């Protein structure tokens, strides 16, 4: 595999600078905000250096500066022992620095291979060399062991497959530094294992890896050192193998979190949702039957593409149903509009908050009140009461600890965790009987994650039925009262109470073998 630097000789190791990359006193100011305040960071050759901190701690700003997407207000970057001034992403890539950001930068109408080489196309005498581009794309995907068709348009890929394309883009040239921002957020356990195997190969070639994750198990598994940021400031750099989860949480938040998952009282009452023999037109779901009651959380588990998200989209009227029946609060709602279902008391909060859940260029106020504009106190069904809307959305934002508390600020200017809070806040604008949470904690830190779990608990204990779709097994295990395991669009198993264990869930993640 030629993606990455060749292995260094003993002489090269002895003469090379101790650090591949150094950042000294890096400060980044925005109008009214100090995103980074005199931060130091150093990356060695062949190490995985984890950047750790809450959403809004400055991690994304720091890696954007390393990747050339932003420039620091002050401070110095040193690469291979020499000061550098990285003014663009192109300049960073010329140095061998490549980033895979949490938010994708793909062109949906272009193919996998076109996205992989966008801006770095092979040309001869002014003509694009498509066969060479296709061959190189196939080679990179094979080396990464990503099962993707280079000629397929990105708009037809799942989010996990799009994540693979983003990672593959980083390997179109020789690497010195690879930045991975929440790379496993949309990957299955199997795909994550393949990524970690790739990281091990890169480390052996002397590539330095800056890794951002909120999953504690990943840090212990692949990390060498951890640098913790808090509120844009450097806190500490510690050994990943010697530092406990409790110590990391204390460094990150300044407090101790004794229990991430709250206890959720199980008090089921009437059946609110019933699905019988449901199949979707895109064949993503086949003959699925399940039910949800007031006062309980049902978990939907399975690999990416198993149908667990697709079935909830069908319930909410976002995916066409080809067969079966959906009954909500005694009414057959198969094929009902999203507006009708919201008015009946159902809410769906999607996994992809940027593309499906939020209007990124609009204010927090507008995003929070979106599902309740026809209701009091937001309006009298004819005219919007902007004062009441502002007061109510501010009250909800305070309840969810939105940071900063600026409801007129565009959602795009908030961290990922706070964007998630804005979307979740929508469920508090009116009474909802059934709320579907699709991957509610993707890309959020442990502090925000704990707050979201408490939020879900409160809604359940107040009498709502909760449907929780999650690729994070601990969420299913600790929060669900009942769990359905999906495989290739069908339900493989239904588990309840003490039956919901990691062993039982994983047993049904894959095709059952004949006895």
So how many helices? 18
Q: Can you name the CATH architecture of the largest domain? A: 3-Layer(aba) Sandwich
Instruction: Give the class from helix and strand content and strand pairing.
Output: alpha/beta
CATH class of the largest domain: Alpha Beta
Describe this entry's structure for a reader.
It is a single chain. It contains 18 helices and 22 strands. It is an alpha/beta fold. The protein has three domains: 1-96 and 175-258, Rossmann fold; 103-173, no CATH class; 269-345 and 432-440 and 463-515, 3-Layer(aba) Sandwich (Rossmann fold), CATH 3.40.50.300. A six-stranded mixed sheet has the order 6-9-10-3-11-12, sandwiched between helices. Strands 18-19-20-15-21-22 form a six-stranded mixed sheet, with helices on both faces. A four-stranded antiparallel sheet has the order 2-1-4-5, with helices on one face. The protein starts with 9 loop residues before the first helix and ends in an 8-residue tail after the last helix. Mean pLDDT is 86; it is low at 1-8.
Short description:
This protein is of the alpha/beta class and 515 residues long. The chain has helices spanning 10-15, 59-66, 89-94, 112-116, 130-144, 159-169, 189-204, 216-222, 245-253, 308-315, 338-344, 353-357, 364-369, 386-399, 416-425, 446-461, 473-479, 502-507, and strands spanning 21-30, 33-43, 48-52, 74-79, 82-84, 97-100, 123-124, 127-128, 177-181, 208-212, 225-230, 233-239, 271-280, 288-293, 297-302, 321-328, 331-332, 346-349, 434-438, 465-469, 482-487, 490-496. It folds into 3 domains: 1-96 and 175-258, P-loop containing nucleotide triphosphate hydrolases (Rossmann fold, 3-Layer(aba) Sandwich), CATH 3.40.50.300; 103-173, no CATH class; 269-345 and 432-440 and 463-515, P-loop containing nucleotide triphosphate hydrolases (Rossmann fold), CATH 3.40.50.300.
């Amino acid at each position: 595999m030629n993606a990455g630097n060749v292995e260094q000789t003993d002489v090269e190791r002895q003469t090379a600078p101790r650090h591949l990359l150094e950042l000294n006193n890096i400060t980044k100011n925005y109008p009214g905000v100090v995103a980074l305040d005199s931060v130091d960071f150093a990356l060695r050759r062949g190490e995985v250096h984890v950047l750790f901190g809450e959403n809004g701690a400055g991690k994304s700003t720091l890696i954007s500066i390393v990747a050339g997407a932003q420039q620091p207000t002050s401070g110095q970057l040193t690469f291979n022992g020499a000061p550098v001034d990285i003014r663009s992403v192109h300049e960073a890539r010329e140095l061998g620095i490549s980033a895979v950001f949490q938010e994708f930068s793909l062109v949906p109408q272009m193919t996998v291979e076109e996205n992989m080489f966008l801006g770095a196309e092979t040309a001869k005498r002014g003509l694009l060399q498509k066969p060479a581009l296709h061959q190189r794309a196939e080679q990179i995907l094979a080396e990464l062991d990503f099962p993707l068709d280079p000629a397929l348009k990105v708009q037809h890929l799942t989010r996990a497959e799009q994540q693979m394309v983003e990672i593959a883009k980083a390997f179109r040239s020789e690497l010195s530094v690879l930045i991975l921002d929440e790379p496993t957020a949309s990957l299955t356990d199997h795909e994550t294992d393949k990524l970690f195997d790739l990281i091990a190969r890169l480390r052996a070639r002397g590539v330095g890896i800056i890794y951002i994750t909120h999953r504690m198990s990943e840090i212990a598994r692949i990390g060498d050192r951890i640098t913790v940021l808090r509120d844009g400031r450097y806190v500490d750099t510690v050994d990943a193998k010697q530092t406990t989860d409790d110590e990391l949480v204390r460094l990150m938040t300044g407090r101790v979190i004794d229990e991430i998952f709250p206890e959720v009282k199980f008090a089921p009452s009437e059946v609110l949702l019933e699905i019988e023999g449901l199949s979707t037109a895109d064949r993503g779901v086949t003959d699925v039957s399940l039910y949800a009651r007031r006062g309980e959380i049902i978990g939907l588990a399975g690999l990416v593409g198993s149908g667990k998200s697709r079935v909830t989209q069908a319930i909410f009227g976002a995916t066409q149903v080809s067969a079966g029946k959906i009954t909500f609060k005694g009414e057959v709602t198969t094929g009902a509009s999203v507006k009708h279902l919201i008015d009946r008391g159902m809410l769906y909060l999607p996994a992809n908050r940027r593309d499906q859940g939020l209007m990124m260029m609009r204010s927090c106020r507008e995003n929070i009140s979106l599902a309740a504009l026809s209701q009091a106190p937001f309006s009298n069904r004819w005219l919007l009461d902007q004062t009441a809307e502002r007061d109510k959305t501010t009250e909800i934002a305070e309840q969810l600890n939105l940071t900063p508390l600026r409801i007129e600020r565009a959602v795009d200017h908030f961290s990922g965790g706070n964007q998630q809070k804005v979307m979740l806040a929508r469920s508090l604008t009116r009474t909802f009987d059934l709320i579907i949470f699709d991957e509610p904690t993707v890309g959020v830190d442990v502090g925000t994650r704990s707050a979201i779990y408490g939020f879900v608990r409160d809604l359940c204990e107040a009498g709502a039925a909760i449907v929780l779709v999650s690729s994070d097994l601990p969420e299913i295990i600790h929060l669900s009262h009942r769990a359905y395991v999906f495989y290739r669009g069908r339900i493989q198993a239904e588990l309840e109470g003490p039956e919901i264990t990691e062993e039982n869930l994983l047993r049904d993640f894959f095709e059952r073998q004949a006895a």
